[in-house]
Design brief:
Helix content: over 70%
Number of domains: 1
Mean pLDDT: 88
Strand content: under 5%
Radius of gyration: 16 Å
Number of helices: 4
Low-confidence stretches: none
Shape: globular
Distance between the termini: 32 Å
Order of helices and strands: HHHH
Length: about 120
């Protein structure tokens, strides 16, 4: 997950902003560390804060959607120049939204189980 989130955030910042390279790389590393930490907490079954679950889910699922839809068209149809744009403008925002919702649902279910 670390490399997926790192690739996702760094590519999106490079394409969409005019930040210096060091700012994009630093922010990407922070987001990737957060995504890796969220994955670690998720697999260990530890308790999480709601905002961490939402941000972590958004980063991970957004990164997976972006990576699959950005690199997928380049692998399947090498002559398509607009293929990666699906990843940038459609799949990544959709993955971020669904990941945030998924993180919230996960933390809500976890809290219901501990309340019972």
């Amino acid at each position: 997950m670390f490399l997926t989130v790192l690739f996702f955030v760094n590519t999106m910042l490079t394409i969409m902003t005019n930040f210096p390279v060091w700012v994009s790389t630093t922010f990407s590393l922070i987001c990737a560390i957060l995504g890796a930490w969220f994955t670690w907490k998720l697999t260990s079954g530890g308790k999480m804060n709601t905002i961490i679950a939402v941000i972590g889910g958004a980063l991970i699922l957004g990164g997976l959607f972006f990576t699959a839809s950005f690199l997928g068209p380049m692998v399947i149809a090498k002559d398509t120049s607009q293929g990666p744009m699906i990843g940038v403008f459609v799949a990544a925002p959709l993955g971020v939204i669904l990941g945030g919702i998924g993180g919230y649902v996960h933390i809500s279910r976890q809290r219901e189980e501990t309340a019972d």
